[in-house]
Structures are given as C-alpha cells and as structure tokens.
Design goal:
single chain, binds S-adenosylmethionine, alpha/beta, 9 strands, globular, Rossmann fold
Length: 252
C-alpha cells in the first residue's frame, strides 16, 4: 500500500497523483480535504514550521503552504518529488522545499516542526513525535476500513481487504498515537460518494491509486464491468469512500 515504486510509476505515467476531473464528489459528512486544510491553516503563522509526510505531487501541501513561515514536504518517490517541484513552480511558491526522506527515519532534527501533516501517507507515531516540538500538532488523514468495500468485494482483493470485519482503523490510530505520547484532540470519520463520469474515468482512476496495486485494465475486465454495471447511475459510476481525520498534540 505504501510502496513508493508504485507512486513513481504513477507519476511517470500520469505526471501526477490522481486527477479530480474524473468525477463529481458528494460530501454527506463535509469535505475531508477542506476540513484538513482548515485545521492545518488554523495552526499556521509567519513563524510556524510545517512538515508534510508522504506529500506525493505536493498538490495538497501547496494549498496550505502559504499559511506557514517554512514548509517541507517529504516523500520517498523521486518521480513524485519532481512532479511536486513542477507544481510548486507553477504555483509561484518559492520557499516550499521537497525532499526525498523516509518517514520512518526522517533524519530531521528533534522538534523541527510546529505542525506535521500526513494525508493517506505512512504513520510512524514515534518518529512524528520526535520531529514535532513539544506542544506541536499532528494532523493525520487515514483510510477507513470500509473504503471502496463493494468494489473490493467484487474484485475479491484490494487494500485493507476484509478489514471491514475488524476493529476500526481510526480507533487503532488513536490508540497508537496515545501510546506514543500524543493527546488526541479531534477524531472524525468522513463518508464521500464519488461519481465517475463513465467507466473510462473509473478505469483511469484505478490505474493511478493503490486500491489494487496490480490493477490491469485487460486482466480485470470481468470484475470491472460487473462493478460498473452494479454501481452505475445517471450521475456516473459510484464509489463509496471512507476517510478519517485525527488531530493530536505532542504532550511532552
Ligand atoms: C497515498 S499517497 C498520498 C499522497 C498525498 N499525501 C495525498 O494525499 O494526495 C502516499 C505517499 O506516501 C509516500 N510514502 C510511502 N512510504 C513512505 C515513507 N516511508 N516515507 C516517505 N514517503 C512515503 C508514497 O511515495 C506516496 O507518495
């Protein structure tokens, strides 16, 4: 799921990480990206230092970067880093840095960040705590256990397959962060309905994300068509997403 080679292949083929113009989104619980942005911006300021982990092509980081005095995005995929540099230049944001670093051993100094953000990237509570200053905040967006469940059931495989029968992922993240010395100040789940304009857009999306790292348009044609038929509507082909956001403060 977190294989940086997968993301490099996506950046090399598509030049970026997923395109929003494939679909229309409906947010019964609010837009998780907008909520995440607002939480992060609320912790910004001219002297505030932000580190974003698993930033991929940097598109989400660049939206919140102007609220901070210094901004560093880290990822292990060189192709994604190159894509992020291009997006940074296009946005005219000169002082955002993108570096190749492993989130499990960043090599960053203790207390380097006032705020650490991570959307759908790898979670290393001990390292994140070390990199944050005492009192600093982590904002983490994770993938919930029921994310695209029907699609995965139709394919009989996929990221977090079968996890819907287990303990909620968000509960585990809260427990891990608490054990590592964080006080959780917010935890919220979000259901999002995505409507892909047609099966062509859904196919393109599946080639860009690691829901099935081995997804293949030709080899997976039978389950793909079965899903597209069962989830089709006049608004498009529907995918039910499940994200969650946790905000936690480093206590000591
Ligand atoms: C699901 S993508 C999320 C990208 C972006 N945060 C977003 O939400 O659009 C996960 C990213 O984490 C990166 N990644 C995976 N393992 C990593 C690690 N150990 N250290 C740094 N980045 C990592 C991948 O290369 C990929 O770009």
């Amino acid at each position: 799921m977190m294989n940086p080679d997968f993301y490099s292949r996506v950046a090399d083929e598509f030049g970026e990480y997923t395109s929003g113009d494939l679909r229309t989104d409906v947010f019964p619980d609010g837009d998780p990206e907008a909520v995440f942005d607002e939480l992060a911006r609320g912790l910004g300021g001219p002297g505030a230092r932000l580190v974003d982990v698993g930033c991929a092509d940097g598109r989400n980081l660049l939206r919140i970067a102007p609220a901070f005095g210094s901004v560093l995005g880290i990822d292990m995929s060189a192709s994604m880093r190159d894509s992020a540099e291009r997006k940074r230049a296009e946005a005219g944001l000169g002082d955002v840095r993108f570096e190749l670093r492993d989130a499990s051993r960043t090599g960053l100094p203790d207390g380097e960040a006032d705020v650490l953000t991570c959307r759908r990237g790898p979670l290393f509570p001990g390292e994140f705590r070390r990199v944050l200053k005492p009192g600093g905040h982590l904002i983490y967006m994770g993938i919930g256990e029921t994310d695209v469940r029907e699609l995965k059931e139709t394919f009989g495989r996929g990221q977090l397959y079968g996890r819907w029968d287990g303990r909620p992922v968000m509960d585990e993240v809260v427990e891990e962060l608490t054990a590592a010395g964080f006080a959780v100040v917010l935890e919220k789940a979000f259901r999002t309905e995505e409507f892909y304009h047609s099966p062509v857009e859904l196919d393109r999306f599946l080639r860009q994300v690691p829901i099935f790292e081995d997804y293949d348009t030709v080899a997976d044609r039978v389950p793909f068509e079965r899903y597209a038929a069962s989830a089709g509507s006049d608004r498009g082909v529907r995918l039910d997403r499940h994200w969650f956001v946790v905000q936690a403060r480093r206590t000591t």
